[in-house]
Amino acid sequence: MLRVSSNLRGHERGLGVSRVWPPGAVTGLGSLPGTDPAEAARVVFGELPDLPHFVELPERGAGADFIGRSASLLADLPVEIVASGWRLTARAGRDLRRARDYLSRDLDALEVQADGYAGALKVQFAGPWTLAAGLELPSGHTVVSDHGASRDLAQSLAEGVRRHLADLASRVPSARLVVQLDEPTLPDVLGARLPTPSGYGTVRAVDASIVRAALRDVLLVAPVGARAVHCCAPDVPIGLLREAGADALGFDLNVLTNAHLDALGEAVEAGTSLWLGVLSPTAPETDNDARTGTDPSFDAARAAIRRLWSQLGFPDDELAGAVVPTPECGLANAAPERARAILALLRDLGRDLVDPLERSAERDA
Q1: Rounded Cα–Cα distance for residues 114 and 41 (Å)
Q2: Which of 42, 55, 280, 303 has the smallest set of CB atoms within 10 Å of its CB?
């Protein structure tokens, strides 16, 4: 079990790292159930006031999905839908126009809801390697199978994200933008676990240095201190993501083992934030009322966060500033009532993390 020396105070660790969200902030990972972007924006800004996110609503269909939405941002690399999924193509067509139309409607809804907003605002995209694994070349092979095509895709994504952030900044000028790259497929890319089109083989592994460079190229588009990478796979490459420039690491707390503790301790020591997935989109059978503060999900999530922090050995008064509770994954497949309940529970978790700080401040006063 790792025990980091507590004689280093928070202001002495992670020099140069400045978080754009306040202690006790919580956030969602992106998707929600439903098809109404205006309602989704209202819910997110109401329940996650310190770090709301630009909502994805994949229930609307192709173009609003995870890969299609991110692919619609690519600069000079149009995409289309084929029987097996999304594929790079020579010219923009109906599928790409539909995806961009969904994105435009979502941006309009966000702009209305965020009028006058001056806090941190998160946007999320498929990272370059998950996108390369989810997009096909015209040949039918995935982009990730071609190193040159993967490099071009990462550069195109970086430019597309840059343009998207500029658009968001013009719509919500006082917001401090935070970028989250979703990389659930990254360990499979590193470990040669992606199947070839025939299904009889696997795509060769991509070298860690190449993976790191592509991630860095996209992350550098975001402001310093506002670069997050989320990976819900059990073998999340913590060290690689930090080396690529991630200021925050998002993962499912349930998949962590003792083998992760050293890497996590080093990350916190360097000022990296931990975005901990602690609430499941699926309600357990004993979860009769997920909207109350005494709900078993709340208690379990609170205990899990504090148990990890204790294992890492950092002072309790640094927890609220270093940790951001999140759902375990996107909420698109959750029942609408469950999704709202999770966001409300996250808000309560954030308040619970800050309460000891407030009590300490009152005693000092």
Answers
A1: 8
A2: 303
